[in-house]
Design goal:
By secondary structure, this protein is an alpha+beta fold. The chain folds into 2 domains: 13-49; 54-132, Alpha-Beta Plaits. It has helices at residues 13-26, 31-49, 70-80, 108-119, and strands at 54-64, 85-92, 97-107, 124-132. It has a 4-stranded antiparallel beta sheet. A hairpin with a 4-residue loop joins strand 2 (85-92) and strand 3 (97-107). The longest helix has 19 residues, at 31-49. It starts with 12 loop residues before the first helix and ends with a strand.
Length: 135
């Protein structure tokens, strides 16, 4: 027997039609699948905002590798947060820029600190954080 519980919801016809269009656009097989994803996303966002639970994610950084000391600075920061970093990927994006992806796992507040530290040095052109959790 499955641990799935069925329940009903009410919404306006207009909202339901918009939701159904979104479901088709994204390729969901059912309204239930789409609702489960929405609930999971809301729960993960709540974990992030309330800095609770263990999250995993990626921090992507693009930086100019010739910027004075940037490579050493980023390496030093990463060593200070070694307990969060599972793996890194370094790509020579073009002749002047590097792309680095940090795969992280830990508490939200610690991931936020790491993200702020690696995003702020001079020479970092762009950074992006993406987090998730098993819900």
């Amino acid at each position: 027997m499955s641990d799935t519980t069925r329940f009903g919801i009410s919404m306006s016809q207009d909202l339901l039609e918009k939701f159904d269009r979104l479901i088709r656009k994204k390729g969901y097989t059912s309204r239930s699948e789409a609702l489960r994803d929405l609930v999971r996303n809301a729960l993960i966002e709540d974990m992030w905002e309330n800095e609770s639970g263990t999250l995993a994610g990626t921090i992507t950084i693009i930086y100019e590798h010739d910027a004075h000391g940037i490579t050493d600075t980023l390496t030093h920061i990463q060593h200070g947060f070694h307990h969060l970093i599972i793996s890194t990927v370094h790509v020579h994006f073009d002749e002047k820029n590097c792309l680095e992806v940090l795969i992280v796992r830990g508490k939200a507040q610690d991931i936020k600190k790491l993200y702020e530290k690696v995003s702020s040095p001079k020479g970092v052109k762009h950074s992006r954080l993406s987090v998730t959790a098993i819900i």
